[in-house]
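User: My collaborator sent over this chain with a note saying "see what the structure looks like." That's all I know about it. Can you take a look?
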Amino acid sequence: MIWMTLLVVFALAALAYIALPLTRGGETWETPNADTELDRLLAEKQRVLRTLKDVESEHVAGLMNQKDYDEARAEYMERAVDLNRDLAHLTGVDPTRLHAEAES
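Assistant: Without extra context I'll predict from the sequence alone. Here is the result:
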């Protein structure tokens, strides 16, 4: 009986772990709670860089074909470069330094 209970609890936990990402809404490019333009740009940049890493992981794991990977990577890299340009303009930091960070 204890084993059956543990099996049910484990199955429910696994189901919740799998279903949780499906319940999240899509992320928007904008960050509504950012206090300043710099905060908004930095938060968006973090989100884009995280998404680039996720795309890379999915491709390496075989969950994404080469064409979809190339398109997604190009889209997010373009957005990262735009954000770096905006951050450089706002802060006066050298944009080539920011571009190197986006590629790593």
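A starting point for your reply to your collaborator: The longest helix spans residues 66-91.
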